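Please predict the structure of the following assembly.
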Amino acid sequence: MVITQPKPFSEILKFLDGKKNIFITGCSLCATSCMTGGEKEILDMSQKLREEGKKVTGYAVLDPSCNKLQARATLKKQKQALDSSDAILCMACGDGVQTVAGLVNIPVYPANDTMFIGEVERIGHFSEACRACGRCELGWTAGICPITRCAKSLLNGPCGGSRDGKCEVNPENDCAWVLIYKRLKESNELGKFMEIKSPKDYSKAANPRRVIVGK
Amino acid sequence: MGLKQKLESGGFAVTAEMAPPKGTDFKRFKECALAVKGMVDAVNVTDFQSAVVRASSLGAATILLEEGLEPVMQITGRDRNRIAIQGELLSAGALGIKNVLALTGDHPSFGDNPQAKGVFEMDSVNILQVAEILMSGKDLAGNDLSGAPDFYLGASVTPVYDPMELQLMKMKKKIQAGARFFQTQAVFDIELFKKFKDAMGDIDTKILVGIIPLKSPGMANYMNKNVPGIFVPDEIIERLRKSQDKVKEGLKIAAEFINELRRQELCDGVHIMAIGAEENVPTLLEMCDLESAA
């Protein structure tokens, strides 16, 4: 899931400076789960904007905001409200904002900061586990991603900064390499660790990336 | 005799560490280096140690060469991608720097520019690997070089580490990648180092044990609490606490430790990290039973 956090309201107001009529979009998937762009958060945002003297012309929870065809169809039904709007405030992830911005002719502003691809540990608790590096390493790392979970993204084992199995960069985090070592040892696969990993091929991660299924 | 010859001929090598200045004034750096000239086999220059902005290790290593000292150029993967690392190593080779110590590098969050983006495209193992490739006359992508460097490659190891097997596995990878010698994290307890030696088993390499002369009980407590891999035993802290001249007592403790390491033939040399008190290194070395390096 794409994890988002709300931007400070003051930053949002700065974007909307001089814009009176605001249409709000949310997202039915990730932003709803993150409580940053579901219907409830949209209604809360509408209230706050009204208190600042804005007029909320309407809203739509896109299903989801990153699906261009779905977003286009939903926004089409809102043509009247959109025609009377000066701007859209998009309560989705950075992808969702750009999808909406590509479909309309008025400015689109983000209400959220996009944080990472994460795991839902429980409601409201998210942790980063994948950095979308373009070439998955999990096959030899016991299902623990060192690119994401090691603060230095090391591929050949731990640095000297691990203490009692914790990372010195943030002692709340486990040292990914100690975790990988323990799991590989349990499954008798430590040999996988001894192979020297050459520096990663970052040409696989040259952005912007595009995937076309079948090609 | 250079560091390589000293170690490879079975001698007891002494290296001292010096950080390049934060600024362009190398006066103190040169003074401290010249003060140990003839007493050490080589001087390590750190590479933006603790992720702090300073003059670079390549620059400082070149200045050491000009002053007639043999440098060990430290290089980390924190601030450079593979292009910059290869370029730095080629420049080092052309300038006559023979010893290179590869490190992964401290995280930028510990430094004085914590907003920096850490690169970490290559870790210590990869830097050793690429240095070997450059020595073979190619670059990492397989392109030919006009002139290849010739390095004596080193790396670091932490003798107090849990799980030890993991540390030793990484050490083996470093050797496989090209490391010929190791400088260790600072050690204060001879029994802990013996345990590490035992755990090393048949790993065949040259080990220079890290020595930090303590300046106060507070320094020891701080390191125990904050520096992974460092363990100062209570009796040493107590000894410092009871002493009148704590700096002198710290040097005495370090000298006794070095002499004991040497007497018991536990290592191939020592690496002294004075951390800001480099002017004390000659005094320390005079207190040790060492032949001069010159």
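Strands of chain A lie at 2-6, 21-27, 55-62, 87-90, 108-110, 112-122, 125-130, 162-163, 166-167. Chain A has two domains: 2-115, 134-199.
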